[in-house]
Amino acid sequence: MNYKFKFKEENSNIELRKKDCDKIRKDYSNKIPIICEKDSNKPNLQEIDKSKFLVPDDLQVSQFSSMIRQRINIDNKKAIYLLFAGQYSVTMDATMSEVYEKFKDPEDGFLYVIYSCEETWG
After folding, report:
1. Residue 89 phi/psi, 5° resolution?
2. pLDDT class for 113, splitting at 50, 70, 90?
């Protein structure tokens, strides 16, 4: 799956995106720059109020997932899923720095994440 992120389409200049990410990483060396977008295959899923995040590098994936859940205000009966680089899931106890090192975008340095959800059994 080669997911097309809106952020990349709207900011098509790779050099500008890379410069932006490099500046963020320099100014906030203990933070992870993230672009988080809704799964375009889930039209009924609420859009998030912002797509750019800067999170502590020691934040766990489970904590980031909770942040996203709160921002989109989804029903507790729905499970939220995060796909890093548009296609990879990770364990919830991984730190964002571990995920960043493994899945950061090779072109611009941002960590791209898709959030999705599914109904769970109640």
Report:
1. -100, 155
2. very high
Supply the pTM of this predicted model.
0.92
| CATH of span 6-119 | 3.10.20.90
Give the start-to-end residue ranges of the domains of the chain: 6-119
Residue 8: what are its φ and ψ, rounded to 5°? -70, -40
Of residues 40, 34, 42, the one with CA closest to residue 61: 34
Residue 74's pLDDT band (cuts 50, 70, 90)? confident
Integer-rounded Cα Rg, in Å, for the chain is: 14
Contacts of 25 (CB under 8 A, 6+ apart): 31, 33, 109
Q: Residue 73, by phi and psi: left (phi above 0), alpha (psi -120 to 50) or beta?
A: left
